[in-house]
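ARCHIVE RECORD
Type: protein–small molecule complex
Small molecule: NAP
Source of inputs: curated submission
Record status: active
Notes field left blank by submitter.
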Amino acid sequence: MWATVPRVKFFNGHEIPLIGLGTYLTKGTAGVKAIKQAIDIGYRHIDTAYRYGNEQDVGRAVRDKLEEGFVKREDLFITTKLWNSFHSPEHVEKAFHRSLENLNLNYVDLYLMHMPMGLAFRGYEEQELISYDSSGRVVCSDVDFCDTWKAMEQLVYAGKVRSIGVSNFNSSQLSRLLSVSSIKPATNQIECNPGFTQKPLIEFCRKLDITVTAFSPMGRANRSDSSSQVTANVLTDPEVATLGAKYGKSNAQVVLRYLIDIGTIPVPKPSNRCEMLENIDIFDFRLTAEEKALMDRFDNGKRAVPLKYYSHHRDYPF
Ligand SMILES: NC(=O)c1ccc[n+]([C@@H]2O[C@H](COP(=O)([O-])OP(=O)(O)OC[C@H]3O[C@@H](n4cnc5c(N)ncnc54)[C@H](OP(=O)(O)O)[C@@H]3O)[C@@H](O)[C@H]2O)c1
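STRUCTURE (tokenized, with ligand):
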């Protein structure tokens, strides 16, 4: 193992590694290879979702590494997510078991409600996960996310999930959830990158002892599905390069260190082995207050992932 990653404790005592491997678009044979490579390098926290269509690939990679005896199950932290069209309580357990089967595991460490927005249920196949009406709009459901949450709590009581959490929730949605829940969310997985830090929401979660996981920490740099170029620009910014040079780090490493220093757990998606190595090598330095202030200047309040196609939903969080 090349890198040891510090862990942080959830309110319930379970620990999550401070950096994870994002896997959106990591699929197929190349995906399995990349995930195994990541485990070899030292990644122990893997972020997947039913919607990514790659749970089987994550499961294959994890199974291979377990069978090799390279890691033990208890050393790994596997997150997956309940898709929006499975919000009805009667679908939650079924959908979860599909994920568990795909992953070929006995339990997952963290199960997240992918979004607060329920969608119409059509089935479990990839082409059934989102349906559109005649005017091309996504078809919503009116399931209350509090009811979805109560069904997710049952998975914890059944010992199938260590911790449950949410994703893309705003502060009032979190407050409403807390008012009915018997188990608090362990994390809120939200977009967080230098272009869009969401510091007030991080602070709101911190006060409630709910961790924040930072998705799209690189702002989906250089990808066509990003709505903001700000973080991509940070990755080539000369001032950030000078800051990084002081510690022998790249701009990307400064970005990830910054996100940890402001209180989040980033799950970057590397495109190659070099990025994979870089993204985990960030635990031997810390930014000063002035350096954090320099990074703060990039926040222009613009999301890279605005989820616009759900903007007509009653529970659209943004
Ligand atoms: N809960 C949710 O709703 C949600 C939403 C989005 C994402 N996520 C999770 O968060 C993960 C990460 O987010 P993301 O996939 O949207 O994008 P991201 O991690 O913000 O960006 C990925 C891009 O960043 C660049 N990158 C990564 N490491 C780098 C490095 N060391 N140096 C330079 N560039 C680097 C790569 O660009 P190049 O290809 O140009 O090298 C890569 O394509 C996802 O994979 C998924 O697991 C969750």
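CURATOR ANNOTATION: Residues 7-310 form a domain with the TIM Barrel fold (CATH 3.20.20.100).
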